[in-house]
Every structure is written in structure tokens, then in C-alpha cells.
Automatic annotation (TrEMBL), chain A:
Pfam families: ThiS. It comes from Halomarina rubra. InterPro entries: Beta-grasp_dom_sf (IPR012675), MoaD_arc-typ (IPR010038), Mopterin_synth/thiamin_S_b (IPR016155), SAMP1_3 (IPR054834), Sulfur_Carrier/Prot_Modifier (IPR052045), ThiS/MoaD-like (IPR003749). This is Ubiquitin-like small modifier protein 1.
Automatic annotation (TrEMBL), chain B:
CDD domains: MoaE. It is an enzyme of class 2 (transferase). This is Molybdopterin synthase. GO terms for biological process: molybdopterin cofactor biosynthetic process. Signal peptide: none annotated. One of its GO terms (molecular function) is molybdopterin synthase activity. Its EC number is 2.8.1.12.
Amino acid sequence: MRWKLFANLAETAGEREVDVDVEAGATFRDALDALFETHPELREEVTDEEGNLRDHIRVLRNSQNPFVADAGYETTLEAGDELAMFPPVSGG
Amino acid sequence: MYAISVVGPDSTALVERLVGRLAVEGRVATVSNLPLAPAPGFEESVTFGGEGADVTYGLGDGWTALGHERTLGEVVDDCAPDYDYLLADGFPDARLPTVVAGDAPATTDRVVATVDAETADLDDLAAAVDATEPHETLASLVAAVKRSPDADRSGAIATFTGRVRAKDAADDARTELLEFEMYEGVAEERMATISRELEERDGVLEVRMHHRSGVIPDGEDIVFVVVLAGHRGEAFRTVSDGIDRLKAEVPIFKKEVTTDEEFWVHDRS
């Protein structure tokens, strides 16, 4: 499974794409944990005391928001999913 | 319009072959780098440069023009509304997606292909050209909406241009550039979705959006929204909603570099 990171999150991690060892059938939470295992410094930056994503952090799974389109942290992932994490957008 | 710089020792031979291939797909413009060679015979016979004209056109069966102070960037912008492809031959410093023809070191990080001019597969090369980010300007988007099949019902075009503002107040540290990072693929998909949704409004016929990425110096354009509509009311409303939705929904990230510091804009707003 591949994570894509953007803006300051990519700077924190020191890379824009992170491959994590998560199999199809795992949950979105598993993929998050795997990302934080590779980059513990990211966990600090994007999660609150309870380990949930801070309100301003955006995530996408195959360009859809899993908290709107799927089952949030419990979303079941499929092989080849593209996961993305970024700060508030600031285009224009 | 796709704008491509062709460089390397065999650039001219490759441009010649590639023009033939791309002309099958659409209208092609080429720009040659001729530092010492104005059109033979034209300058002496009909220009008025000595009398103070800055540009002279010769019209007839085809046309010729001669003038001063024209940059590649200006020519690319001028061609964007009317052509599908532009090939610039022999401009090593061009800020365009680049094809290297022959054995030459790359002078840019925007190389999309390095090929042998005589043996290059033109279908592969045409596909590589079509995979680059198209060069859009306000004029090219306006031209595109005017070609709408619904153009007969249109009485209004409204446009928005976002630009890099150097100062927000007289004593501001000057903004030198903005650097935009895009979620490639998803950003374009979002803009297309917003455009399609706005086109469902009554009286709105076409909506186009384009956002540049990478480094954009102060004074340059960043983003365009163009609306073709039946009447001005829905044109104005839709162009305003279009840029608001783009700024709120499309995954694009802006870093600002001023004379004093650099920072991610979302950290300050």
C-alpha cells in the first residue's frame, strides 16, 4: 500500500511517497499505524492525545474521503489502494 | 495546447519528424531559435524599423512578421489559443517540458524523453507529449469555451485570474514567489468535477479551470476560471463560486517566499 504526503507533512517525513507493509483486508487504521511506524515524527504532528487525526488533517483513499465515502478508520483496504494525507488546501 | 521544447544536437531533425506526426492530431506551431537570421529579404524590403516601427507584418499568401524583443514565453502564450501543439527548437533555457534529441546532457529537470532523432518511435513520443501538462492561458481558455457547441446561446463570458501579489500593504515584506504543490491526478479530477457541477446550473454553458504548479514569481498568473453563460448574472455568480470552490476543495498547497522568510500559507491562515 502506498501513502502520498504533501506540503509540510512531506517535509516532516523527508519523503513524498511511503510504501507500507499492509495487506488487502487491513483497515485504514492499520495503514495509518504502519505509516507512523515508519515515520514516528508524523504521528506527533497529525494526531491528538487520543491518537485520532487532528481536525485540519485531510486524508483520501483513491481520491475519496474515507470518513465520508467509507467507514472511516474501519474502512477495509484493497490491493493497490492509494492513500494520501495533507494539510488544509491553499490553492489559488 | 501542449508546448514542448526540443533540444540537443539533432533537435531540428526530430522537430521535422515530430511535426508530421502531431499534425495528424491537430494544429502545430513551431518556433526556431535564430539569433542571427531575420527572414532573408524581408527586413531590407518592407520593414519600417528604421522609422520607428516595433513590429512589421507582411500579409499575402501566408504571412511574415519581423520585430524586436520577443521571448519564447510570449510566443508560447500567443499561440496557446489557436494551436494544439507547439514545438520550440533549440532553446536550452526554455521553461517547458523537454525532449532531448541526440547525445546531450540535460539542461533542465523537465526532460520527458531522450531519443535518437532518426529512429525515435513517433507514436511513443506523441503519447509522451500528450502526457505533459498543457500550457493554458486566459486567452486559450476563453477560446476553448467559445468553441462550445452551445455558443449560439451564450451572451456572456466571465473570467477570474488569480496572480501572485507582491504586497498586501505598503510596509509588507515583498513576496518574491509562490511555490505550488499539486496532488497530481486528483487535483485535475476535482477541478473537472467542480466544473461539471457548475455547468448543471441553468444558463451556464461551459466552465474551465486551470491552475499552474511549481514556482510562480510575483506578478505572474496562477489560476484561471472561465465561464460561458447565457447572461451576465449567472456568469458572474458562477465564476465567483468556481474560484471559491477551487480554493476550498482542490488539493493544491502553497508555499510563500518573501524577502524575509518562507512558510506554508495554510500555517498562517
